[in-house]
Amino acid sequence: MGSEKGLRKIIKEWEEGPVAKTLAKFPERKEQFETLSGIPVDRLYSPSEKALKDYGPELGFPGMFPFTRGVQPTMYRGRFWTMRQYSGFATAKETNERFKFLLDQGQTGLSIAFDLPTQIGYDSDNPLAQGEVGKVGVAIDSLADMELLFDGIPLDKVSTSMTINAPAAILLAMYIAVGEKQGVPMNKLRGTIQNDILKEYVARGTWVFGPNPSMRITTDIMEYCAKNLPLWNPLSISGYHIREAGSTAIQEIAFTLLNGMAYVQAGVDSGLDVDSFAPRLSFFFSAHNDILEEVAKFRAARRMWARLMRERIGAKDPRSWKLRFHTQTAGCSLTAQQPVNNVVRVAYQALAAILGGTQSLHTNSMDEALCLPTEDAVRVALRTQQILAHESGIVNTIDPLGGSYYVESLTNQLEEKAYKYFDQVESMGGVIRAIEKGFFQREIAESAYKYQLEIDAEQRTVVGVNDFIIEGEELKLPVLQVDKEIECHQVERVKLGRRKRDNKKVLEYLDDLRKVSKGTENVMPSVLKAVRAHATVGEIMHVWREVYGEWNQPKVL
Amino acid sequence: MPATKLVKGVLKGNRRDLARLITLIENEHSSAATALSMLYKHTGNAHIVGVTGPPGSGKSTLVTRITAKYRKRSKTIGIVCVDPSSPFTGGALLGDRIRMQEHSLDKDVYVRSMSTRGHLGGLARATSDAVRVMDAFGKDIVIVETVGAGQSEVQVVEVAHTVIVVDVPGAGDDIQAIKAGIMEIADIFVVNKADYPGADKKVTEINAMLDLDSRERSWRPPVLVTNALTGDGIPELVDMIGKHMSYLQETGLLKQKGLQRSRDELEQIMEYKLTKELFTRLRGTPEYEQAIKKIAGRNDDPYSVAERLIAEFLTSVRG
Amino acid sequence: MSSSKKIRVLVAKPGLDGHDRGAKIVARALRDAGMEVIYTGLRQTPEMIVEAAISEDVNVIGMSILSGAHNALFPKVIDLLKAEGVDNILVIGGGIIPQDDVPALKAAGIAEVFGPGTPLAEIVGYIESNVKL
Ligand code: B12
Ligand SMILES: Nc1nc2c(ncn2[C@@H]2O[C@H](COP(=O)(O)OP(=O)(O)OP(=O)(O)O)[C@@H](O)[C@H]2O)c(=O)[nH]1
Ligand SMILES: [Mg+2]
Asked: Which of C17, C98, C120 sits opposite A481 (nearest CB)?
């Protein structure tokens, strides 16, 4: 390119191509967009005629390779991001009520937080679950709980994201089964399972099996979804937890994209055509404090993924090149001290996510460092998104920071520095080996420690914590506490469920699953059968624990 | 509490006393030597197995697996795992236990983490005494995991009857291959992580290195292949550890090594005591400081001063 | 007595909680303060923690919970220690612990509870002045 004519040409191509196509299907929210003072706002602002060099290959246009400026041709002029607050506590009943409250408040997608026993595959009556049932998420033991969770919520009307990893296949199967009962076929189901086990080893801690069996289950799910759930994202490759465990922005995108490559490679190695599953891969990042670095990070990640998928993997379908992502604001930046200040932090972080072109967003609540969010706190968090969408004006044009000297330079630098990790990990023999050695974990722990030392040394200011302190501050926010009785109640419920079902059938299906799991057939159909017969999460996971054994962490410190 | 009070408990099988005695030894408590001398006659029964190899090669995982196997055969186990101390602060992070927690509720498995406390050679100064206390406690097998070894961490050979050197299949330039120094101390080689490509190649390489070794010996270290995650190769390894012990016994090497060890140990203790005695007397005295100043000012030389001070020391001891 | 005494600390993650950023940071800070820190990793039962504390003859047990299971798990560790007749170990905790829960935990025998935003030097200082060697 490099000439005025060239730029005009490519803009025309973009407008007549992707934009026209999108507009035909999804018209923009308004005919005309304007600023608060009435100045018309264009869809996209491009470099001055003088600064054209490299524009095309490095930035491209929204919806066009390499997607630096966004994955859709019209972005928020067409539709806002999905507002999706992560929530879950106590039993299915309480969480169902919270879901309905959020939908009432204008939330546009659901996101389930499961309790730790569910995430690690223990039923509520397992001794290891004692004291943890329903505490930090909803307890789901069997299909009966899942039905209750979606009582009165038609699955063809919502998209649902489930933060579930080692038992992802089981919870997906339960969702399918609930859909069946509601009369919604699986090809209509929309949503995401996190299903990203690699980052569990690295940063999140709800691993159960080792990398090899886990990757096998993951690829089974990808294959099953590609064939049966065309609207489902079978994997949400997550940098959020890596960042929250203490990484830098560079490490966040490097490790996440490395993990992403590992999944793609696993899929390809298992014989799948990359373009059959890659378009449904999705991502999950953090929006931390440094607004412009975060914007640059999202842009860099998009460009990197596009190139990796096209050039390294050889994916042909442009949809396979697109990095679509969910964002959550950085919980670790929020403080227990002067918690109302958190509203401000979250607003800035959400701003970064939108300027960075996210597809969906969770905004943390001001009581983040105290407890699971109360209704009042989560409402403010959701309102923050609504204010950005409806009042701020940043949604009226695409990638408004594109072309900023600073943002473009940061984008390039983040990309360059992230690629350095690619070389390093390759020389270690790949992602899984690096994880087994504790390489990612150690890098993250180093960054986290450094960050903390900087705060302690007051080289880094945290308002309300190491500066601008209120002496003798007393906590004024109400704290959500999960009732102790919940656990007894859920324990009774799972026991009752085991008495009421056809246990012969359950055993038979579990046996079948054991056989399939030892072999090479896709595990999903067997899981689905077991789930329909009300086999519990713990029982199914137990079969896999027997077949696959359990993983343990390497020494990292 | 003086160490001597714990001896009875240790001999009776009290875990807590065992743990506390090891602490006193690590801290060089004044009563520790007496306690050790009281325990000495109860030692010499355990088979001491050393496990060494590069960082992350799977030593701890192997130790856990070996332990499980021995437990099936009703053997009682003591484990010492050594991690380096920070040269700057003297503190340490001891993390091998993470991988051994599956035995933590088994009263017949005792795991102790130890910092090198600045000591070089792959072990802590107190490691061999800790092993001895576990031996006296009645552990059938005592396993010592060294710090992740480069090439000079070979001291485990002075403590263990059987030294296992662990290596892994190559993985590009990052891998820290075991170095010659470590190769020489192996009684058994293990190529762990057999699930990764290149295990066979590694075996061939090690065998080739062994072929080059011209020393006369009747035990050629076998090279075994394991997958510590699945347990493949572990029964063979445990059998081989037993075979090595039988070999030591049958050839009389065990006795011979025992003699050599007793000699080394006696000499080490004497050397340590003597120097300690010497320096407690010298350090801080005006004469000593004066002599050092003279040497530094080239008014005297360290050779003659050393002669003179030692002679004076010996006379004073005799007197 | 002796010059080479070291404070030995067990840093443990009881229960199913996977939040280990704080525990790892605290472990490093204690190491950098010259202590010997044994880290058990995730998913420890109270029984495992007590057993490790005894075997390792630690002076301090530091537990970290951010998942709300502290009321069930912290006191259990204290009970097991008592049952073993151990009374010389300083037991402290940290993480997301609501203010309202702290008095009961202290009454149960947790010496101190440290919440988010605590400077590491405060934790080091607390241990140094309260440990029984
Ligand atoms: C980071 C984070 C994560 C990361 C964890 C990464 C990691 N490897 O650690 C990720 C994103 C993975 C995560 C996941 C989850 N999280 Co989270 N997370 C947080 C967050 C934002 C910050 C915690 C943190 O690391 N802070 C930084 C460190 C340095 O501080 P710290 O741990 O508090 O440690 C300090 C003190 O507490 C103390 N301390 C801590 N431990 C110890 C130990 C000793 C011995 C001592 C002396 C002191 C001490 O000293 C430290 C230094 O000051 C908190 C909210 C918040 N702002 O605190 C939520 C929070 C803890 N998470 C929460 C939840 C619910 C979860 C999930 C369970 C959600 C779900 N249902 O899936 C998951 C599951 C995780 C799991 N496996 O257990 C809730 C817990 C609610 C509750 N207890 O009632 C919180 C409070 C957020 C919220 N309000 O909802 N989380
Ligand atoms: N794939 C595979 N991984 C293994 C095997 N054995 C151990 N590992 C993994 O290698 C990593 C390191 O294992 P450890 O047992 O901690 O190794 P180590 O030699 O004790 O490590 P240091 O004590 O840190 O030197 C862990 O992630 C283990 O799960 C194996 O046979 N195959
Ligand atoms: Mg180890």
From this structure: C98
Using an 8 Å CB-CB cutoff, list residues of chain B that contact chain A. 56, 60, 93, 95-96, 98-99, 101-102, 171-175, 195-196, 229-230
Where residue A51 falls among pLDDT bands split at 50, 70, 90?
A: low
Q: Distance, CA C44 to ligand 3 centroid (Å)?
A: 19
Give me the interface pTM, i.e. the ipTM.
0.97
- Is residue A433 one of the residues assigned to a domain? yes
Domain count, chain A: 1
Residues of chain B with pLDDT under 50: 172-176
Q: Where are the beta strands (DSSP E) in chain B?
A: 47-52, 77-83, 92-94, 109-115, 141-145, 162-167, 188-191, 223-225
Kind plus residue range of the DSSP H or E element containing A517: helix A503-518
- Cβ contacts (< 8 Å) between A481 and chain C: which residues? 98, 100
> Does some domain include residue A408?
yes
Which chain C positions have a beta carbon within 8 Å of B17's beta carbon? none
A128 domain-assigned: no
Residues of chain B with Cβ-Cβ distance to A553 below 8 Å are 98
Q: What is the pLDDT of residues A364-406, one digit of tens each?
A: 999 999 999 999 999 999 999 999 999 999 999 999 999 998 9
Residues flanking ligand 2, CB < 6 Å? A 436, 554-555; B 55-61, 96, 99, 148, 192-193, 195, 227-229
The DSSP secondary-structure symbol of A15 reads I
The answer to whether the Cβ–Cβ distance between B56 and A429 falls below 8 Å is no
pLDDT of residue A50: 63
Residue C2 lies in a domain: no
CA gap C121, A523 in Å, rounded: 51
| pLDDT tens, chain C, 133 aa long | 344 789 999 999 999 999 999 999 999 999 999 999 999 999 999 999 999 999 999 999 999 999 999 999 999 999 999 999 999 999 999 999 999 999 999 999 999 999 999 999 999 999 999 999 8
- Chain A: residue whose CA lies nearest to C31: A557
What pLDDT sits at residue B181?
A: 77
Give the C-alpha separation, A97 to A100, whole Å.
5
Question: Which CATH number goes with the domain that contains A439?
Answer: 3.20.20.240
C-alpha–C-alpha distance, residues B19 and B130, integer Å: 9
CATH number, residue C73: 3.40.50.280
Reply yes or no on whether the pLDDT at A516 is more than 80. Answer: yes
**B312/chain A closest Cα distance in angstroms:** 50
Looking at residue A512, its amino acid is: D
Distance from CA of B61 to the nearest CA of A (A): 9
Domain range spanning residue A425? 162-456
Is the peptide bond preceding residue A66 cis, with omega within 30 degrees of 0?
A: yes
Q: How far is B310 from chain C (nearest CA, A)?
A: 26
In a domain, C132, yes or no: no
d(CA A107, CA B203): 60
A136 touches C at CB < 8 Å: yes
Sheet holding C8-12, edge to edge: B92-94, C36-39, C8-12, C60-65, C90-95, C112-114
Kindly give the number of the ligand 1 atom that is closest to the alpha carbon of A482.
84
Does A205 fall in a domain?
A: yes
Given the CA of residue B196, which atom of ligand 2 is nearest to it?
1
Q: Does A554 touch chain B (CB under 8 A)?
A: yes
Query: Domain of C120?
Result: 8-127
Asked whether residue C1 is assigned to any structural domain, the reply reads no
Domain count, chain C: 1
Q: Domain ranges for chain B, please list them.
A: 1-42, 43-251, 262-318
Interval between CA C19 and ligand 1 midpoint (Å): 5
Spatial distance between the Cα atoms of A528 and A524, rounded to a whole number of angstroms? 6
Pairing of strands B162-167, B223-225: unpaired
- Which CATH fold would you assign to the domain B43-251? Rossmann fold (3.40.50)
Q: Which helix (H) or strand (E) covers residue C9, if one does?
A: strand C8-12
Confidence of residue A52 (pLDDT cuts 50, 70, 90): low
